[in-house]
Every structure is written in C-alpha cells, then in structure tokens.
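seq:
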Amino acid sequence: MKIQQQLIILFIFSIFINSCDQKESTVGTAAIKNNVIISTDSETAFNENYAHIVYFWFKDPTNEEDKQLFEKSLRTFLDSSLYAKTQFIGTAPRSTREVVDDSFTYNLVLSFASAEDQQAYQDEAAHKKFIKECAHLWEKVIVYDATSIR
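struct:
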C-alpha cells in the first residue's frame, strides 16, 4: 500500500510539473499550461523545498452545494494565505488502472518555502476558518507532506 501511495504522489507531481505536451503561452509573469495559470513569479512558483498534498473524501461527494461551499471557502482561504505558494485544487479523474486511487473528492497541492512556513499556514486564521466552514463536509482527510531530496 505504501508503494501505491508513493506512486500516486509521484504521478501527481509529474502531471503538475511536467505538463509540457500542451500549448504554452506567457501572460505577464504567468504561463498558461493545460488551461491553468502557472506563475513564474518567484513568490508564487512551485517551491521544491516543501510540498503539502491533501486528499478530501466527502460524506456526499455528489452534492453540488457542498462542492460549491468547499471550493469557495478554500479559494478564499488560499487567496489570503501568506505562506502557500503553488495552489492546485483538483478532482479525481476516473481511471481504469489499478494503481490509480480515484476514490477521493478533492485534492489540494501546495508548496512552501520551508517547514516553518507550512506550520505558519496551519496556524493562519483563514485556514482555521476554512476548516470550521467545511469540516462537516468530509468524512476523511489524508495529508502527505514531503521535502525535496535535492
């Protein structure tokens, strides 16, 4: 099971970082890949020092009102975070491959300059507000944190 989880994390990072087979265009200090704006500004570019990957399983994953509340609350929180760099919010693609766990409702991938910044993010008032607003929506949350092997 641990190997499958590690493969899932590696797969997500490879998609996230290496989406090179799509057209790219540059807008100011941002590049557009796969219809996602990726900042090239050092303040918001993916920081390899510390990655924070969160999976959410909703109690009712088909409830559209729950999804809207979650997305709005999460975006409000992330937009005000002083510490979270890269901000990727995703949903599970349906897969027929055994190694892909597509059972989660939402996925969040963030990067931080350091473990200290990640801890400060945990303590932000906006993070606590997000949890208070949305904790009733999920039945399970799993977090994978990783530091670079550079």
